[in-house]
């Protein structure tokens, strides 16, 4: 965010004040080194609530092997506290939730924010999509920007890779990898399960070794903030509100200064569609239960 000079001011809030101040000094050093015009400083919740974009990353880390229910309830409590402290939020603000489980927490945060659903998004499967595109690009020897492929649905074990709509350089994947487009493929067939497993293995290995994926998720936040602040209208796969399910999960949308501008239709096959719908139904049930318990 600092090196990209995406924002004029970057305000940091954390319950751990020593850590917050250390992060501010480290980021200021980075800004001074590169002559970045982004000003970084510690802030209160009240100041954060008046920003153009509020990014919620507060939470605890998931440790490999921990039950997802335990992790979820801990982070729900943290995000509820953060939303309570932020209110009232500027009516023009865009709220981006990064904390996991991201779809559940984005649904809860939107309900507490007082903002319309179009102004609240979750980072969702943005990073998973980038990672999968990267693995396919490596396998096929093309630039990652030439691969069109997203991971959809509820972030986590139920997320769905949209292989049926995948393209390389606007050519459907199957065709791009067939004899006619053979120069694109080192392997004539991509083993999809293997590639998905490779993504999951990579992510777990980074978390196990480093404790988090700060560069990856930092890049996600940078991309989302850049497209929102510059009103670019980029198509991004992010977690957003689905009226039919009354909860948040990821599908592609057009993003701009007012948040979600419109949905993008994806020609998914029946199996992919059913898996996305099934995970959305399960998330909906979970959200209803959480709200009843509150
Ligand atoms: N959606 C994605 O693709 C994705 C990717 C990576 C991480 N994440 C999630 O993002 C979250 C943050 O990850 P991280 O690696 O930066 O974790 P982290 O533990 O390094 O940072 C979380 C920060 O939140 C702070 N915090 C805790 N409770 C708070 C409160 N009530 N108010 C303010 N601050 C509070 C902690 O002090 C800590 O500094 C996690 O929930 C993680 O699972 C999501």
Automatic annotation (TrEMBL):
Gene3D superfamilies: Lactate dehydrogenase/glycoside hydrolase, family 4, C-terminal, NAD(P)-binding Rossmann-like Domain
Domain of life of the native organism: Eukaryota
Domain Lactate/malate dehydrogenase N-terminal: 2-122
Molecular functions per Gene Ontology: hydrolase activity; L-lactate dehydrogenase (NAD+) activity
Pfam families reported for this sequence: Ldh_1_C, Ldh_1_N
Biological process terms in GO annotation: lactate metabolic process
Keywords: Hydrolase, NAD, Oxidoreductase
Residues noted as binding NAD(+) in the record, renumbered to the chain: 14, 75, 98-100
CDD domains, A to Z: LDH_like
Lactate/malate dehydrogenase C-terminal domain: residues covered: 125-291
Hydrolase is among the record's keywords: yes
Coiled coil: none
Positions of the catalytic residues: 155
InterPro entries according to UniProt: L-lactate/malate_DH (IPR001557), Lactate/malate_DH_C (IPR022383), Lactate/malate_DH_N (IPR001236), Lactate_DH/Glyco_Ohase_4_C (IPR015955), NAD(P)-bd_dom_sf (IPR036291)
Classification via PANTHER family: L-2-HYDROXYCARBOXYLATE DEHYDROGENASE (NAD(P)(+)), L-LACTATE DEHYDROGENASE
Family: Belongs to the LDH/MDH superfamily.
The name this protein goes by in its record: Lactate dehydrogenase/glycoside hydrolase
Source species: Microdochium trichocladiopsis
Lineage: Eukaryota, Fungi, Dikarya, Ascomycota, Pezizomycotina
